[in-house]
TrEMBL record:
Source taxonomy: Bacteria, Bacillati, Actinomycetota, Actinomycetes, Propionibacteriales
Reaction catalyzed: L-glutamate + H(+) = 4-aminobutanoate + CO2
Name the UniProt record assigns to this protein: Glutamate decarboxylase
One GO process term, biological-process aspect: L-glutamate catabolic process
Chain positions with N6-(pyridoxal phosphate)lysine modification: 277
Signal peptide interval: none
UniProt entry keywords in alphabetical sequence: Decarboxylase, Lyase, Pyridoxal phosphate
Superkingdom assignment: Bacteria
Native species: Kribbella soli
């Protein structure tokens, strides 16, 4: 590593002496104010790299959904294409062409009725995809209301209380009333009957999540659509569905090909997914697609006539990295459907192996089992009083495992769960190490002496 000796270099043109990084001389690094002087690139590199070594080890991170490993060839491709700006479609026409190929492949994967008429774009992640999908819903509703001579100033969006935070942001940023359907008993996600009760003439759409972030279950998209079909028959209200398939968009087509959740359902207007989750690309890419060009109101699409043809763009960002889009195409070519199926199946096998083993431990009860997404949540069994899920999470962290503990959303804040996300690269061997550490953790927590009696409080001290 860096036992670099202290050397100096004269900057071109002046006599500024730039000290080279050594462990013993760099005592503190600038944090609040840009330093006045330059330093050598090696020094800056050493400082930044050393600092991020303090981050957790990604391999032990069972909290994140985001890709932390790709082939060496992908790393090389990344390094060679970091300079590509996605928006520069005339300068990088081939990158733009590759983006279009990815959109067509996803339209096909998600069973768009006419892949040539589907429209979509890469984004920086699902969050941007949700914003765009939600905006299109809002605009289409406004147009329809205006055309019917009805008020269009009070739009609402119906979704489960378990939605990812991006939908709260969407509602706040774009002035849409969020209609959260509360959890109920064992219903820890949106169900059809509960969704429909929240819908009215001001509803721009219903969000169904393919893979609840909270515990990994798929919301019943087909049932939600059927309930909305029925509502339309009875009331004439035609409410579209956006599927938030952040994780499931790259899992269900491979592991649950018979599950009908996508454009096979005529009511599904748009779908977004995170290329950087189970799409198996490093952070920075997502996708959003609309069933038909007409699902995306024209005024939201800006036409740029680079390339001689018309290039539609619809995005919040202007400049953004193009390399991730190339990496997505790399994965599509490299893995094909078989490769994606094999990887997601391995993740699921590991997830189910883990959840079964935890189910057999008297300390825990499963909340979900990893058979939808390779993600599951578990909680402390009722009899466990000495320690909590938070203690287990903290204890596992000592061994490097990041397993978040949190309360479920309203009405089930009483339920504290631990969640495990199995990603590509989390092997059966690591799973067994993890189980061993879970057993050690609960034994240690169980063996703790009863809490020390509280010290006498000073007289006159009240909480
Ligand atoms: C992760 C996630 C998002 C946000 O996706 P990003 O790609 O991180 O922006 C939205 N919805 C769900 C269900 C998610 O799991």
């Amino acid at each position: 590593m860096t036992g670099i000796s202290s050397t100096t270099k004269r900057a071109a043109g002046d006599l500024t002496v730039l000290p080279r990084f050594t462990r013993d001389t760099v005592v503190s690094v600038p944090k609040d104010r840009m330093p006045d002087q330059e330093m050598l690139p090696q020094s800056a590199y050493g400082i930044v790299r050393d600092e991020v070594m303090l981050d957790g080890n990604a391999r032990f991170n069972l909290a994140t959904f985001v890709t932390t490993w790709m082939d060496d060839e992908a790393d090389r491709l990344y390094a060679e294409t970091v300079d590509k700006n996605m928006v520069d479609k005339d300068e990088y026409p081939q990158t733009a062409e590759i983006e279009s190929r990815c959109v067509r492949m996803l339209a096909d994967l998600w069973n768009a009725p006419d892949a040539a008429d589907a429209i979509g774009t890469s984004t920086t992640g699902s969050s941007e995809g949700c914003m765009l999908g939600g905006l299109a819903l809002k605009r289409r509703w406004q147009h329809a209301r205006r055309a019917a001579g009805k008020p269009f100033d009070r739009p609402n969006l119906v979704m489960g209380q378990n939605v990812q935070v991006v939908w709260e942001k969407f509602a706040e940023y774009w002035d849409v009333e969020p209609r959260y359907v509360p959890l109920e008993g064992d219903d820890l996600y949106l169900t059809a009957d509960r969704a429909v009760r929240f819908v009215d003439e001001n509803t721009i759409g219903v969000v169904a999540i393919l893979g609840s972030t909270m515990e990994g279950s798929y919301e019943p998209v087909a049932q939600i659509c059927a309930a909305l079909d029925e509502l339309e028959e009875q009331t004439g209200l035609n409410v579209p569905v956006h599927v938030d398939a952040a994780s499931g968009g790259f899992v269900a087509p491979f592991l649950q090909p018979d599950l009908v959740w996508d454009f096979r359902l005529p009511r599904v207007a748009s779908i977004q997914a995170s290329g950087h989750k189970y799409g198996l690309v490093y952070p920075g890419v997502g996708w959003v697609l609309w069933r038909h060009t007409e699902n995306l109101p024209e005024e939201l699409v800006f036409k740029v006539n680079y390339l001689g043809g018309n290039m539609p763009t619809f995005a919040l960002n202007f400049s953004r990295p193009g390399a991730q889009v190339l990496l997505q195409y790399f994965q599509f070519l490299r893995l094909g459907r078989d490769g994606y199926r094999r990887i997601q199946q391995t993740c699921q096998d590991v997830a189910v192996h883990l959840s079964e083993a935890l189910k057999d431990m008297p300390e825990f009860e499963l909340v979900s089992d990893g058979r939808d997404l390779p993600v599951f949540a578990f909680r402390m069994a009722d009899g466990i009083r000495k320690y909590t899920a938070y203690d287990v999470s903290r204890k596992l962290r000592e061994r490097g495992w990041l397993v978040p503990a949190y309360t479920m959303p309203p009405n089930r804040e009483d339920l504290v769960v631990l969640r495990v996300v199995v990603r590509n690269g989390f092997s059966h061997d690591m799973a067994d190490l993890f189980l061993r550490d879970v057993r050690v953790a609960v034994e240690w927590l169980d063996g703790l002496a009863a809490p020390m009696p509280q010290e006498e409080e000073p007289a006159g001290f009240h909480h």
